[in-house]
Amino acid sequence: MLKKTGNKEIFLLNDDNSIDPLKRFKIIEEEDFVKVEVLPQPKGEIQNENLKDIVASYNIAFNRTEESKITFQTDSFYIYKYGNNSNIESILFSAKISEKESR
After folding, report:
1. 46 lies in a domain?
2. What is the pLDDT of residues 38-49, one digit of tens each?
3. Residue 103 lies in a domain
């Protein structure tokens, strides 16, 4: 599970299987930002061959119902203290989350 807020949960998935985010991302907390290192996904798991230079691609499910996809074309990015993140052109959102997230 990525996050739990109240009784709502966000899951990181590969196909329909939950993935431990700590095995897929390394989080380094600094004073004004968090560095997220995207660990390379095993090649057999990456399902979007239309894009080049994919480091990792996962499904995200909100309460296991609304499913979206996040694709990383970077091996790291930063989340700053006000919630903005770096490398916006290298982190691709699709499905429901792309409708809600305007970056």
Report:
1. yes
2. 998 887 777 666
3. no
Residue at 102 is within a domain: no
Which residues are CB-neighbours of 4 under 8 A, at least 6 positions away? 10
The residue segments making up the domain with residue 85 are 3-93
**Has residue 78 been placed in a domain?**
yes
User: Into how many domains does the chain fold?
Assistant: 1
Q: What is the pTM of this model?
A: 0.76
Q: Are 53 and 94 in contact (CB under 8 A)?
A: no
Residue ranges in 1-103 assigned as alpha helix (H): 96-100
Distance from C-alpha of 23 to C-alpha of 85, rounded to nearest angstrom: 21
User: Which residues have CB under 8 Å from 63's CB, separation 6+?
Assistant: 8, 9
In the numeric block, which tokens belong to residue 5?
A: 């807020």
The tokens for 60 are 């995200």
Q: DSSP secondary-structure letter at 88?
A: G
| Average pLDDT along the chain | 80
